[in-house]
Design goal:
The protein has 9 helices and 8 strands. The protein has 201 residues and is of the alpha/beta class.
């Protein structure tokens, strides 16, 4: 068995009674560029589906009067727009260049849902930007609290807002975030997967 995160490895152990190798999915970390000064907005890049919990980011930023840009489309968009205050902007689908530009310029990336892995928090770090993530799933493997971002520990607006209220993006080193992202680079995936297959064979 190969698991894409320690959370999945735990699930395999619980349900199958088997150990597994953790090999993280490949992320194209080399396509991102860093900027000297971010702009004044938080960012979400996601499919707009209920389980993604984008509502937490929309409501927290609306209540705190913080600028939030939401990139992505999906069946939850209309409901999210009804929750949003004037500081929240929905950009819909964007091309890859626009997404990379928004990653590079945001204050921080918000990852409010629980995913088995989660590519976007790694992409944000590859762009030199910190991540505010729900402390569950793959984010526990990809975000280093106090170094490349922060966790909120309850899936609630209050828990996320507590972190955002005092968030200071200047505390985080872009070099440290990029170095952490490189742990998940495509080349690392290829090397580890080849090694695993060779060993299994």
């Amino acid at each position: 068995f190969v698991a894409i995160s320690n959370a999945v490895a735990d699930r395999i152990r619980d349900y199958y009674g088997r150990e597994s190798a953790v090999i993280y999915p490949p992320v194209a970390t080399g396509v991102f560029t860093l900027v000297a000064e971010p702009e004044d907005y938080f960012l979400v890049v996601s499919r707009l589906a209920p389980y993604k919990r984008i509502d937490l980011a929309v409501r927290a930023c609306s209540e705190l009067g913080l600028r939030l840009k939401v990139i992505g489309s999906g069946r939850d968009r209309a409901a999210l727009e009804r929750l949003a205050g004037p500081t929240v902007e929905f950009l819909g689908r964007q091309d890859d260049e626009s997404v990379r530009r928004h990653f590079a310029h945001c204050r921080a990336f918000i990852f409010p849902g629980e995913e088995d892995f989660g590519i976007t928090p790694v992409e944000a770090q590859a762009a030199g930007r910190p991540v505010v993530a729900f402390a569950a799933g793959g984010a526990l493997d990809t975000v280093l609290p106090g170094e490349t971002g922060e966790f909120f520990h309850e899936p609630t607006v209050d828990s996320l807002a507590w972190v955002l209220r005092s968030f200071d993006e200047t505390r985080y080193s872009a070099d440290r975030m990029v170095a952490n992202a490189k742990r998940f680079d495509e080349a690392v995936f290829v090397r580890k997967m080849k090694s695993f297959v060779a060993g299994a064979w």
